[in-house]
User: What shape does this take?
Amino acid sequence: MKDHQCKNNSKPVNRVADDNLRVIQSILHETSDLKSRRITYQESAGMIIYLESIADTEKIQQSVIEPLNRAMDKAQPVEQVITNTELSLIEELHKGVGKLLNGSCLLTLDGMSSMYAVNVTNQLTRTPEEPSNEKVVRGSHEGFVDSLTQNLGLIRKRLENENLVIKQYVMGQTSNTKLAVVYMDDLVNKEVLAEIFRRIEGISVDMAFSPGYLEEFLENKTLSPFPQMLPTERPDRTMAHLLDGRVAVLSEGSATALILPVTFLSFFQSPDDFNSRVLSGSFFRMLRMVSFLVAMTLPAVYIAIIGFHFEILPNELILPVKASLEGIPFPPIIEAFVMVFTIELIREAGVRLPTPIGQTIGIVGGLVIGDAVVSAGFISNVMVIVIAVTAVASYTVPTYEMGSSIRILTFPLMIAASLLGFLGIVMGLIVILLHLCKLESLGTPYFSPFAPLNVSGLKDAVIRFPLWKMNSRAMDALPQNRRQHNSKGWKRK
Amino acid sequence: MKLKKEDTITSFQFIFLIIQAQVGVGILSMPFSIYTEAGHDGWISVLIGGCVVQVLLILFWILMKRFPSMTLYEILDTTTGIFIGSIIKGLYFIYFVLVGSSILSLFAEMINIWILPLTPRWLLIVLMAGIGIYAVRGPVKFLARFYVFVSFMLIIFVLLVIYSFFEVDYLNILPIGQKGIMPIINGTEKALFSMLGFEMYFIVAPYVNSTSIKKLKSASISNAVVTIFYSFLTLICILFFGLNEFKLVPEPLLYMIKSFSFKVLERIDLLFLSLWIVSVATSYMAYLFAASRGLMSYSKKNKEHTPFVLYAAIPSVLISLIPEGVYKIGEFTTFVTYLSYIFVFGLPVMLLLLSLLTHRKEKQQS
Assistant: This one.
């Protein structure tokens, strides 16, 4: 357990069971869920101590009390009597308290200078459901749950391999949250792994309630608009990333696995790409890339055209655009800001509300405001179209984090476009691109395989090659073993 | 595979670094300035210019082979001694800053003429310099990654220009060599000025993690690409405009592209200019890097150029604000290009001779 507890409570176990209970009670500040039950085993009085809230009383009864009663007359040591799989002998009280908080029950007997800790954790589980923010059309519909052991089980079930390693950490000075680092030992880059361990060990926080909370402590550039680690609730996605030589971090009480190091492209991949046929998979992926560009630049381009470069439109287009602008009191940048702001309002309101009300908000916000604002003559028709397309495009990105960072990036581009037209957009894009080239996720290039250019990596970038063509792993995580076994064995003679 | 901690780039990235340093602000007016000297044989001048650059690159390579892990600045220190070395280093720093500021002022002028006539020049210059500062701070490998990525745009460049093949008149290049040899040689001079940027070989070559001969190969490939690209552009402009019209168009590429119109986009020259801005930015970044790397060589403690970028960028911005109007900027640019005779052609050759005569070499670590 943690150091600060050792300092206060490093007392040896008492020979009298009642004294032990009293000390433990005082350590836990007389908490109400601390329960005890007196027992007698082979003429010595004893006590079973447990925390009612996390211990499973059924398990205590089955694996501790019943075997003890049955073996009352035989002269057997306790180790042989108790049928539970996890049993440990404890010499010091503070360790016992640590076990207690983990969900074990303590068995203390008069005349013994140590106690037994038996694992009787109450597994509070829910059934694996499909994560609502990472739905797929075909393929696995399982998602992570809130229990760490069950999540690790979900990964193990998919990767029956002796190289899958799980390293546990305890995180959070106060919360003592369990954290698991999962990787494939024969694939992961040892230097990256060592760096991850170094960073995890260096973090000191009071509370670590989810991997997403840790993300800020682990990443290099917190102020970057781009997420540098991929949170996912899908075990199949986690598995695929582990097989690319990446590392997953899971924590107790959270249904999210954090995958690192990742690239920019990982946020645009979906298991659906690989479940569907090559052509449609590639098409949808290209659609997402295009929608990324559209979501980021479309309002800016429109503002630039309206404000500076009307002449770029062909004659046939000028008339309808000009007609819709007639009588609009605001400059295009204000129009755009009002509309983007409204859409963000609707989104933020809809996210937190229960589904039926959320739909109402969508209808009121989308239809009523959109329609009324145009007929009132505040906002031009074309602007409503532009902003609506932008909003829809920003939601096609399969990960929520990337979608929100795109939406944040539209604002500086819109301002730049309103000041300098196309020049502003190009300058803004240069800065964003430079930032992407400079960004590293744990020392590995973030914008790979585009920069640094990696031709074999491009097979799984904008389009997806057939699986049997992808014979090398993604290079960005610098895996130990480049070759990947994908072949149509039957096609060779 | 190893995590790359040290700041090196690959020879593949080196190709694009030099291409992007060479292709820059001058590309819009290059065909015109060559045409004024060489007439409709300008494309031959460009090819000859490419050969001259190749010879120079080989000379550079011989020099750099003797000092594999040194940039120009460290070579100066070793061959000419600390005192003279630091004076010449200072001159080189000034030269790179001057080239940087000529890029900035040409850029601002072109934007004022073509896109934003009312935007103040200083704003454009400061913004571009800001981008340059952001780019150059940090390891060279990040810069190289960016250069490789934006090189995709050169392909779009070429595609836009190729479209004009539908409207050219092939008879315009005939008769070849009508005016004789001298105009072609004069045109070569102009072509060489547009190809400047290959002197980055001196600064960047030590960062390339590769053998010396491979570095030469990379530089030669980039020279070949740029030469072919430039002569292609010149040729197409000659074919498109013909003798009489060419005299009226100082930015022939833009005028040519402006004349096309597609169903969706009416003015493609705006798109073309947007791509051109990226090329301008990359060559400015290259010179900014060269200048700040020069400042770094004065400092004994610092092993990174990042803290010096600002000191290189500020003078380039200030100098670029001085010349106003097309003619002043033209004079300034011509002055800077003539300086390159000394710094790109003269001094390196002298250095090579000096190091050959004195048998100075970098001490091999073994």
About this structure: The longest helix of chain B spans residues 212-246.
